[in-house]
Amino acid sequence: MQLGMVGLGKMGGNMAARLRDKGHDVVGFDFNPELRDVASLEELVGRLDAPRVVWLMVPAGEATSAAIEKLSDLLDAGDLIIEGGNSHYVDDRKRADILKQSGVSYVDAGVSGGVWGRENGYGIMVGGAAEDVDRARPIFDALVPDTGGGFVHAGGVGAGHFVKMVHNGIEYGMMQAFAEGYELMAASDIVDDVPGTFDSWREGTVVRSWLLDLLVRALKGDPELEELRGYAQDSGEGRWTVQAAVDHAVPAPVISSALFARFASRQEDSPAMKVIAALRNQFGGHAVAKTTDDPARTPRS
Amino acid sequence: MQLGMVGLGKMGGNMAARLRDKGHDVVGFDFNPELRDVASLEELVGRLDAPRVVWLMVPAGEATSAAIEKLSDLLDAGDLIIEGGNSHYVDDRKRADILKQSGVSYVDAGVSGGVWGRENGYGIMVGGAAEDVDRARPIFDALVPDTGGGFVHAGGVGAGHFVKMVHNGIEYGMMQAFAEGYELMAASDIVDDVPGTFDSWREGTVVRSWLLDLLVRALKGDPELEELRGYAQDSGEGRWTVQAAVDHAVPAPVISSALFARFASRQEDSPAMKVIAALRNQFGGHAVAKTTDDPARTPRS
Amino acid sequence: MQLGMVGLGKMGGNMAARLRDKGHDVVGFDFNPELRDVASLEELVGRLDAPRVVWLMVPAGEATSAAIEKLSDLLDAGDLIIEGGNSHYVDDRKRADILKQSGVSYVDAGVSGGVWGRENGYGIMVGGAAEDVDRARPIFDALVPDTGGGFVHAGGVGAGHFVKMVHNGIEYGMMQAFAEGYELMAASDIVDDVPGTFDSWREGTVVRSWLLDLLVRALKGDPELEELRGYAQDSGEGRWTVQAAVDHAVPAPVISSALFARFASRQEDSPAMKVIAALRNQFGGHAVAKTTDDPARTPRS
Amino acid sequence: MQLGMVGLGKMGGNMAARLRDKGHDVVGFDFNPELRDVASLEELVGRLDAPRVVWLMVPAGEATSAAIEKLSDLLDAGDLIIEGGNSHYVDDRKRADILKQSGVSYVDAGVSGGVWGRENGYGIMVGGAAEDVDRARPIFDALVPDTGGGFVHAGGVGAGHFVKMVHNGIEYGMMQAFAEGYELMAASDIVDDVPGTFDSWREGTVVRSWLLDLLVRALKGDPELEELRGYAQDSGEGRWTVQAAVDHAVPAPVISSALFARFASRQEDSPAMKVIAALRNQFGGHAVAKTTDDPARTPRS
């Protein structure tokens, strides 16, 4: 079927290519003239037959909002926007409500698969009305792996990005679990072969997983991880997961711990731990304590 | 090669069977007369040619210690004990030191694989001296999957059980990550198809794993987990992992959070949360507060 | 000085009374005819001399927003609104921006002190422009304890509610620390006198605090907390603190753990722990497992 | 009454001085000739009238164990040892069992109060048999503050050190709660006066406490804590509290989080976070990934 694709970077470009390989007619727009088929959103909309389907694959936040605002002026009632970036599910709902006023439909799609997706297919999690999802189904079918797995219509608008967000939150927890296990083995004086241990776990154990595969690969190249600093970025989804858990009164100690560990990893020095150090200094009854008449007693600990 | 197997329950019995299938000569002892080849440890030792190899597969703790103590009297210098149960690595080290005085060697083996191991092979993680591990290598080779993976000689005595313990700690964290993600999706009013979402993640995502496979299977039979109570046991290994982390000054927020969630799941009522409730009651300046002359002020919150 | 007070419930009524005791001229409005001096916001505004100062002490959220919207129509440039409820600091900032367009100033005030405040004074934390805070300073001076402590101008608009929010977050962590210590002593078979232990800590120790005083009082009436259920509500501020920490990339493991413990305390059954139970069931290789052809291996643990 | 005091350092020396001020007859031994009254434990025991009471105030661990072993040879049935150092409660129980064979009694005493204790009194938490505690009661009465508070007989042998341990665990949680609150306020762009905010909380709030007093004092000298590194030691008691919680199946998320934050503060680089960084690198499908034929798909995130 025919599809407009806005954003032809690493993700959008590969997805467009996979769709074309599968016989779909993709009209692409990007700010980069070398990547695009059409020179403007106006031209893109003009090239598509109504009712149109336009897939957005641009950076989350401002860029996505701006593209949607512009498209809302250009598209007609009956057209469909699929937002495939990393939007927050609450933003999806707001946008869908606004677009509904002009009869434009909205589907949100969480996309997993990275640079390997073009060849192997993408995981696709979508939210939206059944009729809108059905209309775009040939596109989804072409994007997922050839096995036909990897697709879910998770619920109404926002559900796609919601479950992608939760996926990433789970990922944070799993990664941190492996990380803690690694550190404990490395800190002990008892385990001589940490990389070999992880490698052995790839068969017959409970923890076998794609993340374990990746860790074994990483340790093959750098058995003691000497080339890396313990510094980890976090994406919006991890934060959103914790905030959604708080909003829904769901205990999320593991996912939040994993997120906080990343926060801490990026600090040159920890303000919180300065407070601990300051308080411990105060216990000691050092000089500074003499200058105050209160409190009366300074316990040892 | 020839092997004595002490403990022919679900695990030991299946392992003995797999070893025999692979051509090894196993002499088995169990307290249950229906399962055993010999009627006593004395007879078992008598039936084995020196230098002997005896594999212990009995419940951790007292039973294992008692068996080792008895064997230490019966075995000769040059013989080898392989402790395949869930011993604590510190106990392994103590036992090995004692046995060394009479020339008996000790190897600890963490075994993973459960009831499927007989057919598919076990994950085996061992600790001990290289010469002792090498001597028993044909046994290990027969127990692991036919691919030859799933084995590691992790270090000296205790290292096998140490890495098995860490494996289980990681497992706790991974399970809790999935559990939190599940609860968040179930608590939201936005996700209509939670089982389908997990199922879709089995392809092309970061969280794909054996645990995800198991969760999808569980949700197929009981999509809202209505047949289960949120009550989870913990094994010694989870606790030991947290305690080892504390001993080694390794931050383990995820693994400990997962363990604590299990503790809490088994409480009819939480004493800690009674304290929170009691303190909140006190804030209110209710009747009880009137009976005291202190403290002067009761803040709102 | 003259002050309009909107909301004469337990908090607002006591504050108005304390202000009058200190010689201030308070005109009060409430929906309850028995409590109020004037019958409407219109009448309240009419009774005050310009430039007016109006203190809001109504339930957070809709009620507060509605009152501010109405007042924004009635007040003149140069007037000042003090929002003393539990608003979110981001809402404060939005409101202040809107009011600024009509020249009305806005100060947010976090208030601590509960039912004891009338007699003993309130803790007051304010945010706003220096000139606005200065203008209302006589009011703040009358509300705080007679010692003159308990007041801070923490920063611009929103800062008052921000630091009140953080105060409550810290409170959550402190309460949970005592709660965990209580549970550990109660769970051990070694401590015979838990209430006496807490009581002894009121002198000469590091943990002496108003919360400890409250706990000792609670244990005097109910030494084993048998009259209470381990069920704890949470207020918005605890949630907001965690969300603000996430927004600012600040690790907050203790405050979030304390919040999550409250969430968990209110669950009849934990969906997350059902997942743990379900996964543990799957390990066992029970009947349900036989009906699937995948996965190949089911490890013991 | 008469008391032998072993260990006359900062703590033991001050305690001996306070006891003498209150009219008790203290015979002191220390390895430092300048501090002691007697030159050996033998001489100390010889100078005391039976039944003797000997208070140990030496470094925890080896030094304490060695002193007890030596004293067990020198003392007679009916004598009493009070161990006032920071022993683990399990060690107390072992020692008491051994001493009981020769009729020597054992009481463990957790002592709080630091350098201010000589003047203001110490918090004393003891464990032991009632008759032994009663015998030493005049000593305890002289050590605690003149108000008579600050003492508890918490239970049998070990209970004194157990509750002192829990006290310190609670202290960890409280300190971390303040630390997180500080960091959040410092990280925001909204709070202009962090020290003033803490200061204002000393009146009329829920968080008022001796730790808050200390923090306010520390911030007076160094308002942005610029002179300190975020590096915090931990004492044995914090670790023991977490381990005891795990042993007793008590959820302790706050105390353990506080402990882990200290562990992390002392790491130049975090091995765990290197694993996170390594895994994130692997996602990207970078060069290293090309050299493997597995896994098939590399998702974006």
TrEMBL record, chains A, B, C, D:
Keywords: Gluconate utilization, Oxidoreductase. It holds the Pfam family NAD_binding_2. Signal peptide: none annotated. PROSITE patterns: 3_HYDROXYISOBUT_DH (PS00895). It comes from the Bacteria. Residues 160-301 form the 6-phosphogluconate dehydrogenase C-terminal domain. Belongs to the 6-phosphogluconate dehydrogenase family. This is Decarboxylating 6-phosphogluconate dehydrogenase. The lineage of its organism: Bacteria, Bacillati, Actinomycetota, Actinomycetes, Streptosporangiales.
